[in-house]
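Consortium newsletter contribution from the modelling node. Members have asked for a concrete example of what our holo predictions look like. Here is one, prepared for the adenosine-5'-triphosphate complex that several groups have been discussing at recent meetings.
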Amino acid sequence: MFIDVSNLKKSYPSGVVITEVLKGIGMKLEKREIGVILGPSGSGKSTLMNIIGGIDRCDSGRVIVDGIEVNDLNDDRLIDYRREHVGFVFQFYNLVPDLTVGENIEVVSNISKSPLNTDEVLTAVEMRDKKYRFPRELSGGEQQRVSIARAIVKNPKLLLCDEPTGALDYDTSRSILRLLQQVNQKYGTTILMITHNAAIAAMANRVFKLRSGEIVEETVNQTIVPAERIEW
Ligand SMILES: Nc1ncnc2c1ncn2[C@@H]1O[C@H](COP(=O)(O)OP(=O)(O)OP(=O)(O)O)[C@@H](O)[C@H]1O
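And here is the predicted structure:
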C-alpha cells in the first residue's frame, strides 16, 4: 500500500475550546493510483492532505507513505521527506513573480536529488515555448501548468493537489485535470487531489468523502473516465 493512514486525529484550539478536525481517519491508496477527497468546506480535507504531505503534524495515528512512517519523522527528516517525495499543487499558483517560467522550475530542480529535465517537464505541460516568460504574462491556466511542472520536476512519488482547478474556468479546468491524468500515467506518480466538484471523482481510482473530520464513504471506481470526457 502506497499511502496507509490509520486512526489519524488532529485538533486545533479555537478560542477556549479545542475542535477535533480529524476524528480517526483511515484511508489507503495504492501506488500509481489517483485518489480524490470530496467534502464540504471545513470538513478537514486540507488538514488531512497537509499531514500526509508533511506540512502539518497529526496528534495521533499513523501516516505511512511508501514505507516511510511520516508521523515518526523529526523536523529535519520531515523537510527531507517533503523535498524528496512530495510535490504540491495549490489553487493559487504561488509562482515567484520575478523569475521566468524556466527559473521557477529550476529553483526546485536545483535542490532536488534526482530531478527531471526542465525542458522535459515544460514540454509535458505544453509550456516549453513560454520558458522565458514571467508569470504575469501568463493566463491562470498557464500558471497552473507551470506550477504542476514545478511540482513534478523533482520526480516526486506523490503529488498532492489542493483544489487545483478552483480558480479556473470550465475548459481550462478540464485541460488541467487531463494534464494531471497524463502525469499520473507518464511518470507513475500517485496523485491525491482535493476538490469540491463531485464530477471530478470519475477520473479517480478511489474517492473519499469527508464530513466533519470523518470519512463517511469510500468508493473504488472500476472504470476511470478520461478527464476530457468529464462534464459538469
Ligand atoms: N492552523 C489552524 N488553526 C486552527 N484551526 C484550523 C487550522 N487549520 C484548519 N483549521 C480548522 O480546521 C477545520 C478544517 O479545515 P480544513 O482547511 O482542513 O478544511 P477543508 O475541508 O479543507 O475546507 P475548505 O474546503 O474550505 O478548504 C476548519 O474548521 C478550520 O477552521
